[in-house]
Amino acid sequence: MGLGKYLKNLSVSTDPVPVTNTTTPGQPPSKRQLYQSRVNRGPNLGSMFVLEKWITPHMFPEGDDHGKTSELDAVEQALKAKGVDDTRTMFETHWREWISDDDWRWLREMGATAVRVPIGYWMVGGGQFCDRTHFEDVHKVYQNAWDIFKDVVLRKAAEHEIGVLVDLHGLPGGANGADHSGTTVGEAKLWDSSRCQVQSYDVLKFLATELTQFDNVVGLQILNEAPYESRDEDVQKTFYLKAINQIRSVNTEIPLVISDGWDLNRWVDIIKELEHHLSSERGENASLGVIIDTHVYRCFSDDDKNKAPIDIINNIEEALPNTENTVDIMVGEFSCVLDGQSWDKHNEGAHGSREELVKQYGQRECAHFAQRACGFYFWTYKFKWGGGGEWGFREMLEKGALSTVYGPLQQRFPQDREPTDNYYEQALAHRCQQAVGNHANYWQGQDPNRDWEHWRFEAGFRQAWADARAFDKWNHSEIGRRAAWKRARELEHIRERGVGHDIIWVWRQGFDQGLQAFLETRQYAFHG
After folding, report:
1. Does residue 78 fall inside a structural domain?
2. Most buried of 47, 127, 213, 291 (most Cβ within 10 A)?
3. Does residue 390 carry a catalytic annotation?
4. What whole-number distance in Å separates Cα of residue 506 and Cα of residue 528?
């Protein structure tokens, strides 16, 4: 069987496969496209389907844990004490009760547009992918898990127009050695095991197939927190390409999320290279439909522990690069937590109280992510007991630490200031004329004898404005996956109007300026 899995893994292609249906040519976005491509922000539903003892200690035996803090530890200990039926009931009760209707209503009212939900391979398909894994002997506990996930997360979120990022947090063999991968054995066998990789492809294909029935799925995350070692780059790249290929064989449109392996800039370059190669091969603009996930924590590294809180806060705007809408980035996890060693260096007299700095830190994180990420998710939504402090989404939001992007809808978009269609039509006419004039004057000044095809600039401007307005009409959403959306609209433009590769930048500039002009116009309408 080992040889068979090895040969099957070898046979999986690494040829990049493009995404389809990011947009519909000549049409405004569909509901599914709105979910997939708007700015998606909200909390993680940590420890709902992948247990972590520090969040849900009630699912573990009382007393010393002796390092037994993972999902597998919890289910094994419960089975010893309760047997299969009672253990299954215990877990199913947890899954069904962790998030209530009141939680979903509150999340929507506070401006959350999506949740990121970590899951493990052991629950997918009711435990059908557990053969020859650490969960093989406990899989019966999960026989109803996948159906419950669809009911209590996917369908419930849809009732409140909230998207779901399905995050395959735990893969066969483990993508990293941490307990949030499902075990405390400290292994990351995925990268060296053909069997584990092929099993992972099968899990991902199952998910990609099943998720086609839900419009509110905003993406599928292939894995969580790949380890950082420079030698692993080619191994990780090969795994991602094979996984993408397998997923695209059953689902050509779902956005796919990869971990940056703690080296975001390098993976930005890799995706750029892959999409350039793919476009060259196809002879037209193409997108992989990939989002790079990075986690922004400033409480773990020795470098951050050696900094005072004010220094971390003042440099948080360096967390994400400006990709100029060429690659989509999301922040899959962040918090307001700084390490105790950092707080030991805090000068309260000079910089204010800890509470004031935590609030400032969270606000600046959110403002930065809103500028450069297509989505961002706080770790985590809730704890079994207590508010979670600087790890807790509700507590931090209620204390104002996330107020730059969250808050009651009426505060963010007062109904008495809601613009009319006529307002936006007039603004478009004015802003477009002004932008086209400025663009034409500048480039004609550079070379008055060249045909700069300024009409392409106007076409890009108007396309972006129309798309931004369409997103806005749905709960004041915004285009989040700007790289993928823009590439798709650019391809439509090229197919319809034709273009030489040395002039398409004119359309791109128009698109970027049209999008920004709409957002500025909306901001002025609501807040002056």
Report:
1. yes
2. 291
3. no
4. 31
